Amino acid sequence: xxxxxxxxxxxxxxxxxxxxxxxxxxxxxxxxxxxxxxxxxxxxxxxxxxxxxxxxxxxxxxxxxxxxxxxxxxxxxxxxxxxxxxxxxxxxxxxxxxxxxxxxxxxxxxxxxxxxxxxxxxxxxxxxxxxxxxxxxxxxxxxxxxxxxxxxxxxxxxxxxxxxxxxxxxxxxxxxxxxxxxxxxxxxxxxxxxxxxxxxxxxxxxxxxxxxxxxxxxxxxxxxxxxxxxxxxxxxxxxxxxxxxxxxxxxxxxxxxxxxxxxxxxxxxxxxxxxxxxxxxxxxxxxxxxxxxxxxxxxxxxxxxxxxxxxxxxxxxxxxxxxxxxxxxxxx
Length: 332
Prior knowledge:
- 67% of the residues lie in helices and 2% in strands.
- It is an all-alpha fold.
- The chain has a single domain, classed as Ribonucleotide Reductase, subunit A (Orthogonal Bundle).
- A two-stranded antiparallel sheet has the order 1-2.
- Its cofactor is Fe(2+).
């Protein structure tokens, strides 16, 4: 059985590949400025400056779009927690440190531009939004809650350090890209759609960096990386878990096609697993084979869950349509 590498050994062995990927990212990333994506001429003062405070009639967003925008923004707001997690599990030296700093700076723009858009257009209640931000950021993000019982295997995903972090963030960045892109469509506002397309493009480049680093880790220590990937796949939760109204907003987003079970399976899990050739690899030991089999069984179960979810969703949407003949917002 192959020895698991320590976090320091992994970082040292993978540092040349990290440098290559940082350089590639810097050559591909496009500079952009949040102020260029906000319709400032829509803005006006609030009551504290002799204007009018927010009321629901001022918002042009549907309830679905509001839920998605708030969820996406509060997720972006928790950047300090994510930065800490990445910095602790990667490194602040050399190319690792360059990546951590660059990634953090790029991610910070996302929260800036979404908040400016929502406040200027009065898309959501800014007071409630600020209260939710305070709560969510005070709670922070702690991956130690990712405990899952699957078959006869119990694991605590947070214990896996670098391997868990790089596997988790690969899937999470792709999931965030999907959510942002579909939220833009749900807003029915070309300005919001353009803004969220720009953010989604960032998330895609971030995903590519993490995906390639995870692939390199698979080549370096197959069983160890497969263990981390299996832990993440079987216990995946979006980082917004625990934010105010997360469950309600998540249900709305799933019900109306912003981020649902099929998208999670077909647009997030499967593409990354295929890119890593998880089910074609021949370099796993017995432990890696066991974890790969668990992932395969989980995907089979998830396919059945998708069908059940969509059947229930269709019934719920039909009931809603009978109560309100206005066509529901749905992003296919």
